[in-house]
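Backbone-to-sequence.
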């Protein structure tokens, strides 16, 4: 469920959470130290024009925009999108954050259907579909559990990857847990961070070629 917290922010919460104890989008909390060098930004090829086809609560889109990219963020869940839009709106009217916030354009809808309709040159398409929770693993962050309750498990992630490949964009990046198999085929490169890895399908690489053949 969503509701407005005592500070006027839209938050996602469990029905029995006290008001103000839910999850809102507040980009002031995001550390931007060394942002140009973080694994996500390097995986996406540095500064450019990037489609974040699985925007969620916008944390990754924010890092990419803070590193100087223009980001088109797509989110299909109305609930999640409303909470992100609320956070972006507040950031746009904050003198310290407006420059970053105006680099993010948020679109609603299913990226599988939207990607073929987007025109222009994109330097990268970034995908971070939900991943099913591991049996017996530690409890995920509250924000992840709330988003999962709203959207499910993104069982069409393979289809989304093929839709991204079909756009002709020369760099596609997929975030995966370390122990998860790659989607559809092995990537052309990987960048690993402490918690996740980024599978990169790039340029004339075999991985991207295989994906394009499958998308055709
Ligand atoms: C793991 S979350 C993304 C988290 C995000 N990277 C962040 O930093 O907050 C996955 C999100 O992608 C969205 N999503 C998955 N497949 C999608 C699709 N085909 N089109 C649009 N949104 C999609 C889900 O609704 C969910 O909100």
């Amino acid at each position: 469920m969503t509701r407005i917290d005592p500070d006027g922010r839209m938050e996602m919460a469990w029905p029995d959470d006290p008001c103000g104890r839910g999850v809102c989008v507040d980009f002031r909390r995001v550390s931007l130290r060394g942002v140009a060098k973080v694994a996500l930004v390097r995986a996406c090829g540095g500064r450019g024009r990037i489609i974040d086809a699985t925007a969620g609560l916008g944390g990754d889109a924010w890092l990419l925009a803070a590193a100087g990219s223009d980001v088109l963020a797509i989110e299909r869940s109305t609930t999640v999108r409303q909470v992100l839009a609320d956070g972006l709106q507040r950031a746009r009217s904050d003198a310290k954050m407006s420059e970053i916030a105006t680099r993010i354009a948020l679109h609603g809808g299913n990226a599988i259907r939207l990607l073929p309709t987007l025109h222009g040159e994109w330097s990268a398409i970034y995908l971070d579909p939900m991943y099913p929770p591991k049996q017996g693993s530690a409890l995920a962050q509250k924000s992840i559990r709330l988003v999962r309750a709203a959207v499910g498990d993104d069982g069409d992630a393979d289809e989304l990857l093929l839709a991204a490949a079909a756009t002709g964009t020369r760099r596609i990046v997929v975030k995966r847990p370390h122990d998860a198999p790659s989607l559809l085929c092995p990537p052309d490169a990987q960048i690993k961070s402490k918690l996740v890895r980024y599978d990169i399908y790039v340029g004339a690489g075999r991985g991207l070629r295989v994906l394009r053949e499958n998308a055709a």
